[in-house]
Amino acid sequence: MSKGSSRWRTDGVRIIRSNELDDRTAQTLGMQRRAAVTTERTGASKLWAGTVTIDPKAKTGAHHHGDLESVIYVVNGVARLRWGDRLEFVAEATQGDFIYVPPFVPHQEINASDDLQLHCVLARSGQQGLVVNLDIEPAEVPELVRWVDDLHK
Fold first, then answer.
1. Has residue 7 been placed in a domain?
2. What average pLDDT values come out for the chain (153 residues) when binned by 10 residues?
3. Is 106 part of any domain?
């Protein structure tokens, strides 16, 4: 093995086992986040990744993630997202769907299932300011948004 190759043994790929996820990460009422890829655990400097679970019929508190972009992949269940200054917009995503949350967007995750735990994988564009919890009086009836991109009208 060349000297350059041996460097990748310690500075290369990292495997984070499911039983090694860390719940000592920023939390929001109503969900459990568990960190997998962090600076501390892997040396990552430009992204954060982990999981989130939400019990049946439960919802999180309103929050945003500062200037970070977030991607949520729904592994199992039905994720209902409310967002906006008064959480006045709503959409749902199911198993296999991706959700993109832009920087500073106030949002709330809701498990729309009566009996299945919602399980998602999260990725964010940085390590800092992961969660800003908000005190929002939500709109009584949110507007359903069926977003379709320009390519798939």
1. no
2. 73 91 85 90 91 93 93 97 96 96 96 96 84 89 81 64
3. yes
Q: Please write down the HEC assignment for all residues of the chain.
A: CCHHHHHHHHHCCCCCCHHHCECCCCCCCCCEEEEEECHHHHCCCCCEEEEEEECCCCECCCEECCCCCEEEEEEECEEEEEECCCCCEEEEEECCCEEEECCCCCEEEEECCCCCCEEEEEEECCCCCCCEECCCCCCCCCEECCCCCHHHC
61: its two tokens: 């508190």
Instruction: Give the residue numbers spanning the domain of 35.
Output: 17-148
Q: Considering the domain boundaries, does residue 12 fall inside one?
A: no
Domain with residue 144: its CATH number is: 2.60.120.10
Identify the residue whose tokens are 């995503």: 93
Structural domains counted in the chain: 1
This prediction's pTM: 0.85
Of 11, 111, 14, 94, residue with least CA distance to 57: 111
β-pairing verdict for 143-144 and 78-83? unpaired
User: Is residue 3 in some structural domain?
Assistant: no
119, burial (CB in 10 Å: exposed 0-12, middle 13-18, buried 19+) = middle
